[in-house]
User: Which sequence fits this backbone?
């Protein structure tokens, strides 16, 4: 009860009382004696003999404070405690007594007077906030702050901001960090009083000395809006809202604080001669970034330093924050400033950066606005861009000095000598005698890893694999020669810096083998079944993520039943005198043979079928005949001229060289196309001259194509790998060439009916003044009039493989990426000639089915999505028409269209929404006009439940016509520059495509080799799914299926162990069978059941031991149910010919479904005898398009890993696809026509 009486005496217990109010903004000098004990606040006595009022702390009354306001302190003076201890400043004893702390926490008898303990330097200035009533002894105050090194306060005594709670003492010191930055303390909710004292161990009564303390109300921080919009923007110049007026000849340091977090947030500096709010009077700062500021991730401020300001008196500055869908936020105005100077500006400087992954070479490119004599440029870096003193030259032995191009305004630097950090910022500095230096825009890269790449090599594990005549394997012309079958190669790695090797593996024709293995040595077996020329590389990744690659090893696999022919002279393919086999005999390569064209020139006058072809620098010319390849076609160099080339569903065409491959005629791919080298596909020149390297390939200075193009149709897999081997270093010439062009695929048309895949990023190309928007995975680097827009708030951050470098007048050209350029009858004129005419399907990229996953790739040219889906993140330079489905990103992502966008009534734009903040929802950004129709469907992801007031902008444009006719679960409003969407969580989201039917055909045997079909019903507790299961056999004979089972019996096994059996369907309750579902033969079986969530198995076998081909089907009779068919799996004996494992399914609904289909066998060996050792998988749609896979790592390794459904064995096949509603068939075979048990599975991911 004695404590209760003391609560009425707060003023009597304080020796000094001060008041701080909002109007005053700052207290006067407050004396705080060394004997002031913070634990005597509102108390009469404390441990150690202290008592009020002699040792009471100083009370500061807080008036008119808002919750979350910040105050700063300024303290001088010194104190000491008894026993001859040293005299210390407000920061206290920073040595011996730093870890001294008050032991009045709950582990030492309970809080002293209801106030928590503290760990802070001895004799330091400390404080504690209290409410208007005293703390209750014996309560539970917050855990004590520990300001010692390794304590629980970030920065320890050098914290920049602190949020203490009521009755939680905190360190104040002199109020500044070691670098002089004011420390901000947040006033907690409910605080009306602040008590000040010093830090001691037990008794304050014998302390002496005092501190003089001033408390200042810091600028009120912007309050983040409730729904991610824009708040007020606070702006400073040189660290102050009212800096010194005369700052000429210095770098102005601009900083802006903006706590709104909408996607597309950008902040830029503007200048004016009149301090008004008329937006038309303010212009962007004329520096290299057009005033755009960079987000400093350390301080969360937007920053920019610049010398490119008007050299005049009376200039005013402000920051303007903008984001699509929100009104702009203009900051406070700073000025007037006198910026008159005795020197002239050097002009603007613009910097571009391309990164190529951890530890790899960075490419810096800069452009200045003048060719002034004596000009020099250097690169500077920092991890704290707000601190001008922290910027330092690169430590590369040349102080970051850049080299000039032939153009005196262009400079470059390629280096690995850059600093590391979670976020590193770069800028270029231009200097010249007699001029003010020019600071470029700031580019942030996050993270930056520095170090040497592992050294790695690959070699045959045993030399007895090599065949007579085998070469060194170092060049395509001198390959290792091996037989079909098992290859044994060893990859070996070492780190010069002693780093651990986390990944080690081989890349065989672009397919990764064993990349999940660690250690410095690995031997891998690989079953080869395709004769021809192949490329193998070893790679190793260390524990920092830095990857090193070995030089490629070239392998030639001889066909087992055919011959190897080499072109011995120039001439006709069909002339036997032009070919020699391994024994020196003449002959024409046949359908089972391997034809090595090498560096020769050969013409085809009649159609040719070849199993394997190798082209190394020569030419294959069409002269009335085409070339069909059923196995391997590897091109390490050379050209295909006027040639109609077809790759069958079992074939692979690989471009492995570093040079471009000119092609004209047509290229139809039913199998697999792989771009693994650094070259691409370009037009065949009209003349004999080589394809130009100074401009776009095949385009002359007048913008006319100087060459003939190829028309491309893709029905299979079109895979674009990021090059794994960097180009050989080149000596720096006196006048270096411009930045190299990216890989290009230049075609008259590109029609995709299969699956287009890019691995680890691609290149981006735009034209002058283009506006680009990106999410994670690609840097946006503009030039001249190009807008620089980035989703992390204006900083230009490179990550992944989608980095780009600008070259010339505003063109943004990717480095080490992949592009598809489809022109013809569009922006360019095709010269007439006597070659094969290009296809007339219309210029651009046409998709009539399948899926195109941009994966940070560029498509340049008109794009028409007439069927299938367009997914992923990337950039399209050209007009886009959507008559099917476009779904940007992969939760979440963005597609940027540099052109116009037309969505027809059958088109649907699907966006996934994980929140109202940046990078949380998908986005389609159109630089031109959007002509709108069809639907916008929004799917909430990642457990996000939107507030109806949350708005986001999934579609941006410069202007729009029409409307989005359907928004299934929200509201859409079109603004002047985009669509604003809100989602009502009470309305159902649009349903994705769902499996409505499952069917499996198999040759049914006896014993365990029956047809076993498993499926999973998923859904909330209590939900049900009504299904119909059929077992067919005899009726299949009428459909042309030979050897059908004569009397099938069907079993449905439930999770509880019960079994439903039907032999002849007419013996059951036929009233449950819907019209049209009754089998045509009475011997066939039907089960109708209503099932809850769980695992189910349907078994089809002979009723009396019969064998033959049977079909098991599962139909969804209640597609509106909350329960769903989540995945299916069928097990059976895979034979050859028609007796393979065939699984069919129907995707219902109105929208695509994302599915994973797997062919599993080797990983089942531990539980099943006689499994296949390797599987192949084909996925067919109703239009005949085929997606195939052999070894899941070969095409979609990273995508499958992200689903966590990757097979356990590298020899198992898998396909990830987004499928539009329709009928699909999955076919599983044994690799090399082997037989055994396998399982085909289909998973619905949505």
Assistant:
């Amino acid at each position: 009860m004695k404590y209760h009486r003391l609560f009425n005496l707060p003023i009597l217990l304080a020796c000094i009382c001060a008041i701080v109010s909002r109007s005053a903004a700052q207290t006067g000098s407050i004396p705080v004696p060394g004997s002031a004990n913070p634990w005597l606040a509102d108390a009469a006595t404390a441990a150690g003999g202290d008592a009020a009022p002699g040792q009471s702390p100083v009370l500061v009354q807080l008036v008119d404070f808002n919750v979350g306001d910040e105050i700063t302190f300024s303290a001088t003076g010194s104190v000491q405690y008894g026993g001859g201890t040293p005299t210390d400043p407000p920061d206290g004893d920073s040595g011996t007594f730093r870890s001294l702390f008050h032991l009045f926490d709950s582990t030492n008898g309970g809080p002293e007077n209801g106030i928590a303990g503290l760990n802070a330097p001895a004799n330091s200035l400390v404080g504690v906030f209290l409410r208007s009533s005293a703390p209750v002894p014996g309560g539970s105050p917050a855990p004590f702050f520990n300001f010692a090194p390794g304590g629980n306060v970030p920065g320890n005594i050098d914290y920049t901001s602190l949020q203490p709670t009521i009755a939680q003492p905190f360190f104040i010191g002199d109020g500044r960090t070691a670098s002089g930055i004011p420390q901000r303390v947040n006033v907690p909710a409910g605080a009306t009083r602040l008590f000040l004292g010093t830090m001691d161990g037990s008794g304050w009564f014998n302390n002496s000395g005092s501190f003089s303390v001033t408390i200042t109300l810091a600028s009120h921080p912007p309050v983040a809006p409730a729904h991610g919009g824009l708040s007020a923007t606070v702006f400073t110049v040189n660290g102050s809202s009212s800096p010194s007026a005369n700052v000429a000849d210095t770098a102005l340091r601009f900083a802006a604080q903006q706590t709104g977090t909408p996607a597309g947030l950008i902040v830029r500096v503007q200048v004016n001669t009149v301090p008004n709010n008329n937006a038309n009077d303010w212009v962007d700062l004329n520096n290299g970034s057009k005033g755009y500021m960079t987000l400093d991730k350390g301080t969360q401020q937007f920053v920019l330093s610049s010398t490119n300001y008007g050299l005049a008196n009376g200039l005013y500055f402000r920051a303007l924050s903008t984001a699509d869908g929100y009104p702009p936020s203009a900051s406070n105005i700073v000025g007037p400033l006198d910026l008159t100077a005795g020197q002239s500006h050097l002009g603007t400087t613009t910097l571009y950066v391309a990164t190529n992954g951890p530890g790899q070479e960075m490419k810096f490119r800069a452009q200045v606005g003048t060719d002034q004599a004596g000009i020099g440029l250097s690169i500077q870096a920092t991890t704290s861009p707000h601190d001008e003193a922290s910027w330092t030259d690169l430590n590369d032995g040349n102080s970051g000095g850049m080299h000039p191009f032939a153009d005196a305004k262009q400079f470059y630097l390629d280096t690995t000598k850059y600093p590391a950090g979670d976020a590193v910022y770069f800028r270029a500095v231009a200097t010249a005698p007699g001029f003010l230096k020019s600071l470029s825009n700031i580019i942030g890269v996050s993270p930056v890893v520095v170090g040497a790449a592992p050294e790695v090599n690959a070699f045959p594990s045993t030399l007895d694999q090599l065949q007579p005549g085998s070469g060194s394997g170092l060049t395509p012309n001198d390959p290792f020669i091996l037989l079909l079958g098992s290859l044994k190669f060893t990859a070996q790695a070492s780190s010069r810096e002693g780093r651990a090797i986390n990944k080690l593996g081989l890349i065989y024709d672009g397919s990764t083998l064993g990349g999940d293995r660690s250690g410095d040595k690995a031997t891998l077996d690989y079953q080869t079944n395709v004769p021809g020329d192949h490329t193998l590389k070893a790679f190793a990744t260390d524990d920092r993520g830095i990857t090193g690659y070995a030089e490629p090893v070239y392998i030639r696999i001889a066909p087992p039943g055919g011959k190897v022919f080499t072109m011995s002279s120039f001439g006709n393919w069909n002339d036997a005198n032009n070919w020699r086999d391994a024994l020196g005999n003449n002959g024409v390569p046949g359908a089972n043979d391997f034809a090595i064209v090498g560096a020769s020139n050969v013409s085809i006058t009649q159609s040719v079928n070849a199993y394997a072809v190798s082209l190394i620098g020569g030419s294959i010319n069409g002269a009335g005949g085409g070339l069909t390849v059923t196995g391997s076609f590897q091109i390490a160099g050379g050209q295909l001229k006027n040639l109609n080339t077809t790759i069958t569903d079992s074939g692979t065409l690989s471009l492995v060289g570093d040079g471009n491959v000119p092609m004209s005629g047509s290229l139809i791919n039913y199998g697999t196309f792989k771009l693994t080298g650094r070259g691409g596909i370009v037009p065949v020149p009209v003349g004999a001259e080589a394809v130009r390297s100074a401009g776009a390939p095949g385009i002359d200075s007048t913008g006319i194509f100087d060459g003939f193009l190829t028309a491309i149709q893709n029905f299979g897999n079109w895979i674009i790998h990021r090059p794994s081997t960097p180009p050989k270093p080149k000596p720096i010439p006196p006048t270096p060439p411009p930045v190299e062009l990216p890989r290009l695929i230049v075609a008259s048309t590109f029609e995709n009916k299969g699956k287009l895949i890019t691995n680890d990023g691609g290149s981006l190309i735009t034209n002058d003044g283009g506006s680009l928007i990106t999410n994670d995975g690609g840097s946006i680097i503009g030039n001249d009039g190009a807008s620089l827009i980035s989703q992390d708030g204006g900083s230009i951050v490179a990550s992944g493989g989608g980095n780009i470098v600008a070259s010339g007048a505003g063109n943004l050209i990717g480095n080490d990426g992949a592009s598809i350029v489809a022109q013809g009858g569009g922006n360019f004129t095709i010269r007439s000639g006597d070659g094969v005419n290009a296809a007339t399907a219309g210029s651009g990229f046409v998709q009539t089915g399948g899926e195109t996953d941009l994966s940070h790739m560029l498509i340049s040219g008109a794009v028409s999505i007439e069927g299938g889906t367009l997914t992923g993140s990337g950039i399209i330079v050209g007009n886009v028409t959507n008559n099917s489905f476009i779904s940007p990103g992969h939760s979440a992502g963005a597609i940027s269209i540099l052109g116009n966008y037309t969505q027809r009534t059958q088109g649907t734009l699907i966006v996934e929404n994980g929140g109202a903040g940046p990078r949380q929802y998908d986005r389609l950004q159109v630089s031109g006009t959007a002509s709108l129709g069809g639907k916008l469907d929004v799917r909430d992801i990642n457990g996000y439940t939107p507030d109806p007031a949350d708005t986001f902008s999934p579609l941006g444009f410069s202007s729009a016509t029409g409307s989005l006719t359907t928004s299934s679960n929200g509201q859409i409003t079109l603004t002047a520059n985009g669509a604003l969407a809100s989602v009502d969580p009470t309305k159902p989201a649009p349903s994705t495509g769902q499996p409505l039917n499952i069917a499996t055909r198999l040759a049914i045997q006896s014993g365990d080799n029956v047809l076993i079909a498993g499926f999973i019903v998923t859904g909330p507790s209590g939900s049900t799914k009504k299904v119909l299961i059929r077992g067919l056999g005899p009726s299949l004979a009428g459909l042309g299926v030979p050897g059908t089972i004569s009397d099938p019996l069907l079993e449905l096994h439930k999770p509880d162990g019960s079994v439903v059996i039907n032999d002849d369907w007419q013996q059951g309750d036929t009233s449950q069978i819907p019209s049209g579902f009754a089998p045509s033969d009475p011997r066939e079986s039907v089960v109708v059941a209503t099932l809850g969530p769980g695992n189910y198995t349907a078994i089809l076998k002979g009723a009396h031991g019969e064998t033959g081909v049977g079909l098991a089907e599962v139909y969804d009779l209640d597609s509106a149910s909350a329960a769903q068919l989540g995945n299916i799996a069928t097990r059976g004996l895979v034979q050859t010919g028609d007796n393979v494992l065939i699984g069919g399914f129907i995707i219902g609904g109105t929208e695509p479904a994302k599915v994973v289909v797997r062919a599993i066998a080797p990983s089942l060996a531990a539980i099943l005898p006689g499994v296949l050792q390797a599987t192949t998988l084909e996925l067919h749609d109703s239009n005949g398009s085929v997606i195939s896979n052999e070894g899941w790592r070969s095409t979609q390794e990273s995508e499958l890993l992200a689903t966590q459904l990757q097979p356990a064995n590298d020899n198992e096949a898998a396909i990830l696809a987004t499928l539009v509603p329709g009928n699909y068939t999955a076919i599983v075979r044994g690799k090399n026509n082997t037989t055994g048990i396998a399982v085909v599975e289909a998973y619905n991911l949505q």
About this structure: The longest strand covers residues 627-647.
